[in-house]
Design goal:
Blueprint (H helix, E strand, L loop, with lengths): L1 E3 L4 E4 L2 E5 L25 E2 L5 E3 L7 E5 L11 E6 L5 E7 L6 E5 L6 E8 L5 E8 L1
Antiparallel strand pairs: 1-2, 2-3, 4-5, 5-6, 6-9, 7-8, 7-10, 10-11
């Protein structure tokens, strides 16, 4: 949920995302400008079921998945796939040992852009998250 602090920083889910110029009413002139704001955080992006990915945006040649194996007690493993924005599968990686709690995914071959990461199990569970590669 977004809230506005007194110092005009917009806070979204606890992360300050940028300066917000107050809007003026009536005949007053506003000097508000619209700018793209990029927020970088090393805090993991969380899926449900205890799965996280970091860093996101990816600025290195890999991203790291972590998960809580208790959430996957009935799964033998899962597949991580990276899809482009139109849905084409760019790469996949199988995770066979749930107890490892971590998997590194090589993204060095991906062009800068937005991708959809999908985690899926053989039982039909599927979870998606956006990955930005810079």
């Amino acid at each position: 949920m977004a809230s506005q602090k007194a110092n005009n920083l917009l806070t979204l889910n606890g992360v300050e995302t940028g300066y917000v110029e107050p809007l003026l009413s009536g005949e007053e002139q506003s000097s508000a400008k619209t700018e793209a704001v990029t927020v970088r955080t090393d805090r993991p992006t969380s899926f449900s079921y205890g799965v996280s990915i970091y860093p996101n945006p990816a600025t290195e040649d890999h991203v790291t998945f972590t998960w809580d194996p208790v959430e996957f007690t009935h799964a033998e493993g899962f597949t991580i796939s990276v899809n482009d924005i139109v849905g084409r599968v760019i790469l996949t990686q199988e995770v066979d040992n749930i107890d490892n709690r971590m998997e590194v995914l090589d993204v060095s071959g991906l062009l800068p852009g937005t991708y959809i990461l999908q985690l899926s199990t053989e039982s039909g569970f599927s979870q998606s998250e956006t990955l930005i590669v810079q």
